[in-house]
Design a protein that fits this description.
Number of domains: 1
Shape: globular
Radius of gyration: 15 Å
Strand content: 15-25%
Helix content: 25-40%
Distance between the termini: 47 Å
Order of helices and strands: HHEEEEEEHEEH
């Protein structure tokens, strides 16, 4: 997949975060309350001024590229909850057409597993919150 670093995928992001993503970003010094929010019970990247908390508008790049969330690593292959499967996000990514069939076949199972883990994390957090009341 080719990327021209346009930053469109970082604008108004709703990228979901796994427990591992959050812990990895906290280990390098970020506080989850600053970079994460909860939407419909699922932790997602927070937007600041319309872009991802980690997006550096001056250089059009990610401040935590080496430690970025797993879902960001797979983009523009994204999981479509409505269809229940990975898709290529041609609507946002102008380079989506460069994703090869081999890349899709390699990433789709990993992305499906990531979504399963995120949903499991969400259910675990919901159960914990219910027990605390």
């Amino acid at each position: 997949m080719d990327c021209d670093r346009c930053g469109k995928c970082c604008a108004r992001t709703s990228m979901q975060l796994s427990h591992q993503d959050i812990k990895r970003l906290e280990r390098i010094g970020y506080r989850s309350k600053n970079f994460a929010t909860t939407r419909k019970g699922i932790r997602t990247l927070k937007n600041v001024d319309g872009v991802c908390f980690f997006f550096n508008t001056k250089c059009s790049g990610c401040k935590v590229y080496e430690n970025r969330p797993e879902g960001c690593r797979y983009y523009p292959i994204a999981y479509c909850l409505e269809e229940g499967k990975p898709i290529i996000d041609e609507e946002v990514c102008s380079k989506a057409y460069t994703v090869t069939k081999e890349e899709m076949n390699r990433i789709a199972p990993k992305l499906t597993e990531l979504v399963r883990r995120i949903m499991e994390d969400s259910h675990t957090e919901t159960r914990k919150a219910g027990k605390q009341k």
